[in-house]
Amino acid sequence: MKFLPSVHLPCHPWMAMVILPLLLLLVPLAAAQWSSCSKSDDYKSNSTYVANLSLLSSTLPKKAASSTTLFATSIMGNFPDIVYALTLCRGDSNASACESRVTTAFQDLLRLCPYKKNAAVYYDPCMLKFSNKNFLATTTVNDPLFIVNTKNFTTNADITQRLLFTLINSMAQLAANSLRRFTTSRLDVGSSPTLYCLMQCMPDLIPHDCESCFQDILNSTLEYLGGKQGGRVLGTRCYMRYEMYPFFQGDPKLRIINLAPHVPTINNTTTPATVYPQSQPPDAAPPPEGKVTVQEHNGPTTRWNGDCC
Ligand SMILES: *[C@@H]1O[C@H](CO)[C@@H](O)[C@H](O)[C@H]1NC(C)=O
Ligand SMILES: *[C@@H]1O[C@H](CO)[C@@H](O)[C@H](O)[C@H]1NC(C)=O
Ligand SMILES: *[C@@H]1O[C@H](CO)[C@@H](O)[C@H](O)[C@H]1NC(C)=O
Ligand SMILES: *[C@@H]1O[C@H](CO)[C@@H](O)[C@H](O)[C@H]1NC(C)=O
Ligand SMILES: *[C@@H]1O[C@H](CO)[C@@H](O)[C@H](O)[C@H]1NC(C)=O
Ligand SMILES: *[C@@H]1O[C@H](CO)[C@@H](O)[C@H](O)[C@H]1NC(C)=O
Ligand SMILES: *[C@@H]1O[C@H](CO)[C@@H](O)[C@H](O)[C@H]1NC(C)=O
Question: Where does the record place Pro residues bias (predicted)?
């Protein structure tokens, strides 16, 4: 499938004036988090694995914060106690916030996935994953989690899929070719709802692999998020989020004013989904590895706010 050329128009200056007061009004809320843990592959509390993991937790946050892309990978120890780790802070974050957030992410992950050798955690501002398997070499989306706002658009059902397709299709190239593999947009077309979207790849992906990663999530995004007022696809290599309200810092980098003329036929049979209500993910049984996970959240309860990175 080919990505269509994107519509690239400057944003109106008034948008900054409208968005900024909105952001200041947001009340800080408990940080939303979603995690996934391996079922098998346990380590012992006194093992070399945990020693290497602990070394990683003291070095990776600084390494990410000192990178211009707020991204870091690391490999610690030797087989069979080798640990691979990857962390990324969102493209609109900054170094100091990133370092403290990734430090907390390590602590959270040890609590959320006790004694698990493979674990990942996602927050609005950053993600962290470690494993005893070398996932750093892969370029695909890798066991994405789907976070679904259960509210439907009230708009014409025919265009709900086109809205999502238009977002991913218009933004993939721009994100893939930017230094941080990151972009944001605002979509305003006709009478359909205004949408805000953020897409980012791991900055170590070459542009081509970044675009492929977004193509990989396209089918399941249309299948699981089509018609929904908001959602996130959280993957190890790339992710996207869209909402009906602004949730990122700064003006949208892209303004989209035309809908894609049609949505390609999608293949729904690729990956089964598991659905979790939002209040349960940290307590619920971890999803089976290699499956797509759909989790629910009700309404815009987890907004970007200035207190977090
Ligand atoms: C870890 O502790 C267990 C029991 O407490 C012991 O059997 C094992 O030998 C210890 N392993 C190491 C590497 O110290
Ligand atoms: C991994 O942990 C072991 C046990 O503490 C330590 O001997 C080893 O040096 C660590 N590996 C690295 C690369 O630091
Ligand atoms: C949203 O739409 C889906 C599919 O049409 C439907 O099954 C679901 O009940 C709707 N949800 C709400 C909250 O209206
Ligand atoms: C795929 O799933 C979506 C949403 O459930 C549905 O609207 C669409 O018709 C399905 N497509 C096919 C080819 O089954
Ligand atoms: C998406 O669906 C199309 C059409 O069925 C299919 O050719 C393609 O392989 C699917 N992509 C993925 C990543 O599943
Ligand atoms: C849908 O995906 C399945 C599994 O990836 C594949 O076997 C099948 O050929 C695909 N169908 C279409 C129409 O692309
Ligand atoms: C970094 O981001 C945090 C959270 O958004 C903010 O509180 C802080 O002032 C920022 N620091 C700098 C140096 O911009």
Answer: 279-289
